[in-house]
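User: Run a structure prediction on this.
Assistant: Running it now.
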Amino acid sequence: MKRYMTAIIEKEDKGYVALCPELDIASQGETVSEAKNNLQEALELFFECASSKEIEGRLHSEMYVTQMEVAVG
């Protein structure tokens, strides 16, 4: 079974941090590609090892990624 998950990747210091907000799981890498691949591996290991109860408890069923305008200053 396949499932689509969100990956938010952000530059941090000398590398990149990748976050899956649906499960609050993160990983990192020296490049965007490496961070994404490491996150994918972390997610696959989570789904392989976690109980269905843990998955259900952590999984946010509705996730929206959007931009918004904010007044600054």
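The chain has two helices and three strands.
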